[in-house]
Amino acid sequence: MGVADQDDGEPAGHRFLVAGPLVLDREDHRAWLDGKPLLLGGKALSLLQELMLRSHTLVTKDRLFAVGWPDQAVSDAVLTTAIRELRRALVDPARDPVWIETHHGKGYRFLPDVKARNVHPGLFDDSKDSAYRDAVPFGKPVRLRTAIALVALFLLGGALFLASGRQDKSEDVSAAGTATA
User: Fold this and answer.
1) Domain 4-132 is found in CATH 3.40.190.290
2) Rg of the chain over all Cα atoms, to the nearest angstrom
3) In this predicted model, what pLDDT tens digit does every residue of 14-24 receive, in sequence order?
């Protein structure tokens, strides 16, 4: 089946692959799920792209080896590890998959429909794609900035607390010194 072509041209030539809340930027080699960046190595990203390009189709282990490890002899364990990395990032249990289905001894199948786009998914105007409008963040996420601000406030508060405790002790010492004199 493969990728549904949403723009003119060859689906494989499109920059973005979109499967619901999952967005893969083929040019920048980055992926996001629900607008959050996926922390994936290069091999895992290459495998994800191959699986997304051939959604609903069994992609053989030999094909995935050729994509991830061209001209290298590697064991099945290397492929299994890369798929495990993908599943962990996608929060996709192997026993009840939503994203990647295993065909033991044969290969893997990407389950959701995939759309190919030339335009950043966050720039769509039609309402059916509004769910993807914020799929790929521009700049730092607001949560990260908020967390940094909270940590800074906590550290500042701790420093002020410690400074006020030292000041109280110095007042106690000076008051005790004047009482005995």
Assistant:
1) no
2) 26
3) 889 999 999 99
